[in-house]
Amino acid sequence: MNRTQDIRIDDYAYELPDERIAKFPVTPRDSSRLLVYNDGVQGSYRFTDLPGLLPDDTMLVFNNTRVIQARLRFRKETGALIEVFCLEPLQPVDYALSLQSTTTCRWMCLIGNARKWKTGDLSLTFEHEHRPLMLRARKGQVHGDGYEIEFVWDDASVTFGELLETLGELPIPPYLNRKTEESDKTTYQTVYSKIEGSVAAPTAGLHFTPAVLEALHSRGIPCEELTLHVGAGTFKPVKSETIEGHEMHTEYISVSRALIETLRDTTRRVVAVGTTSVRTLESLYYIGLTLSQHPDATAEELRVKQWQPYEEEARLTRSEAMQQIAAYLDRTGADRLVSATRIIIAPGYRFKVVDGIITNFHQPRSTLLLLVSAFVGGDWRAIYDYALTHDYRFLSYGDSSLLWRREAAQ
After folding, report:
1. Where are the domains of the chain?
2. What is residue 399's three-state secondary structure?
3. How large is the angle between the packed helices 318-332 and 275-293, nearest 10 degrees?
4. According to the model, what pLDDT value does residue 314 have?
5. Rounded-to-integer distance, Cα 110 and Cα 125, Å
6. pLDDT, tens digit (0-9, with 9 covering 90-100), for 269-311
7. Topology of domain 4-67+186-404, per CATH?
8. CB of 340 within 8 A of CB of 253?
9. For residues 96 and 88, is the Cβ–Cβ distance under 8 A?
10. Residue 131 burial (C-beta neighbours within 10 Å; 0-12, 13-18, 19+)
11. What integer is the mean pLDDT of 343-359?
12. What single DSSP character describes residue 305?
């Protein structure tokens, strides 16, 4: 029996012409196209058709994260341009607290042109409410591709979030091969985004408009929310020959007690809006499984490891797993589960929570394509061939698909 870890990433390659990559979104958002896949059959619709295509017993789950302007550009006295890309907070470790920090905070960052920054601080000076303010960046320890960066500024009335909003740049995906434009500040956010922390948008949600959400409400289809802060690892290519050599990035999740209780009800089909919602929902199952074996597990022990689903026997129902989390929240007096996941979903994975996915069309050789393949029973190539031959637009600003889970030997 082949292990999931032995999957060759070259088996998930396809030819994606540059002209099929959408550089900008369509206007309005919900005029994008929608490919519907169910049990081997594809069909073409408009995204505005979505509410009428969902069965009555459906519930949608959205990721309400909001993209921060995470890219800062510093220029040294020598003229060298250094880019500091904020990935995740280190001190304070909580996203909300870090963005609310005054005078100092510490983040894990990527650094562009790092060889030009050997010693000393970087600084930016700008006007804030008619007075000068200076932001300094101090380079600390190296962790793989990332660096610990301490930010220090000289005005306690200004938060780090406000600094990013003033000085930062929205980090659109590198495969768009263009600079961020003012319009991206609106179009690269979902209309329901609330919780700041992502450095990439949960792009499946970019198609939703207030009109589509109202149509879902009129049909009585519940729309629930969770939070997963998307990291730059979303764009990290798989460079190893097999996926065993690929290290998944850590993503931070927050799920309310109310949603946990809702997921205990198995009479509704769960449709995840985007792969980020999929990873969060499926991670919940394994957090529940850990709690069933170790009720006193620490927060660190509850984090979902990359290969955990392939190493543990899944012996709980979805409802039982959610009950374990609800009991844990009772014991700890919390009203939401805050944790992290490095889960990789690839062929060989068996879905425990999600019945349908709304998602865009993903890059060749990507972990997101592996997730799609696992969900449709290995039928991804037929779906993507259909999309390519029917003029669908690809990647973050491209068209959408509604995929229903297909159980098949993989």
Report:
1. 4-67+186-404, 71-169
2. coil
3. 70
4. 84
5. 21
6. 999 999 999 999 999 999 999 999 999 999 999 999 999 999 9
7. QueA-like (3.40.1780)
8. yes
9. no
10. exposed
11. 96
12. P
